[in-house]
Design goal:
Radius of gyration: 13 Å
Number of strands: 9
Largest sheet: 5 strands, mixed, barrel
Number of domains: 2
Order of helices and strands: EEEEEEEEE
Structural class: mainly beta
Strand order of the largest sheet: 1-3-2-4-5
Helix content: under 10%
Strand content: over 45%
Number of helices: 0
Length: 133
């Protein structure tokens, strides 16, 4: 189970129902001030969704600091390792980011190891845009 420590949050509006996506990476939606779940593997993100809003409700986003995140070690074949970079998978979950790849962003550092499977909750230090391949 992931530890929980504080970080810096900000508020947006959920563009669509993202109530099943708490602890996923979010990106800016096409409507100003709105967010949606990240769907681009290795893409930039605003941070990690901290609550479970439906469309039009307030979405709290951790943009810097410690956060739980839902992990998937099987996307792109990279496990999450303690103090290693993480990026967003095409499903919005955190995946390992072992080798820098052109046009991909690291979104933080893992605080725990997660070697296999999908769906565990691990702790990361969120720091979007800290490395671009």
């Amino acid at each position: 189970m992931a530890n929980y420590r504080q970080g810096f949050d900000t508020s947006y509006i959920a563009d669509v129902d993202i109530s099943a996506s708490q602890w996923y990476f979010v990106v800016a939606a096409s409507t100003n001030g709105h967010v949606t779940i990240s769907s681009t593997a290795g893409g930039s993100a605003l941070g990690v969704l901290q609550n479970n809003p439906k469309a039009g409700e307030e979405a709290t986003v951790r943009f810097f600091g410690y956060s739980k995140v839902r992990a998937n070690s099987e996307d792109a074949g990279s496990p999450l390792n303690n103090m290693s970079y993480v990026k967003s998978g095409s499903h919005g979950m955190a995946v390992g980011y072992v080798n820098a790849t052109a046009s991909q962003w690291a979104l933080g550092r893992g605080e725990e190891d997660y070697a296999s499977g999908c769906g565990a909750y691990v702790e990361i230090f969120v720091d979007p845009g800290i490395l671009r391949g």
